[in-house]
Write a structure and sequence with these properties.
about 230 residues, mainly alpha, 14 helices, about 75% helix
Length: about 230
Amino acid sequence: MLKDSADFRRVASGVLLIAAPLLQAIAVILDPGTWGDDREAVSFGDNPALAQVQSVMYHWAYLLMALVALSLLHVMRRRAVVFGHIVGPLTVIGYINLSGLLISDPVEWWLGQRNTPEQTQRILDEMLNLPGVVFGFQMPWLFFAVFGLPVLLVGVWRAGFAHWWVPLVVLVGYGASLVVPYGPVTIPMWIAPAIALGRLGVKTLRMSREEWISYYPTAAPGRTTPDSYANTTA
């Protein structure tokens, strides 16, 4: 498999589609802030070890979700190509910025160990509301991840690789989590997209090499396919 680029990309894409959203769903279950005080300076202090575990899991979930967005572009090589080339990179940018914001978790825990919850929140707000943080890491980049992925999945549906309900479930799950308080209710909202994306991952892993390659553009002058590339480098 490692010597065959097509098979490697297929397996890697399938594993990412399963693992990345699953990591996020597990992180929300482990997060002390899901079950404890809604002030993370307090809940993180109650279980600092678990707080660090969930923060790392979110960090890697978002980084891997960026790779998921890139992997989905493969099935859009013949249909919705321009759409994918625009939405895909924007989604990647969104997830990378989401990952970057996770560094505030240990900062909040550290501040919470040395200040009252009110003081901690005031200091953190002053830090996160700096213009460089807001416009460099938050706005509008975070929304590229939350809404970019379901929009990208619309292109995947139009390319014939996913059912129509996949982008809908992802949109409802991740979108609804923005309008409700972070807590136990967030768990099913993030499990649902994990199931939808996981089904795409299983479908990808079950594909044959030939089915995967069929999404490459048809052989034509100026077009490169895996077979034509192999022939030129043999």
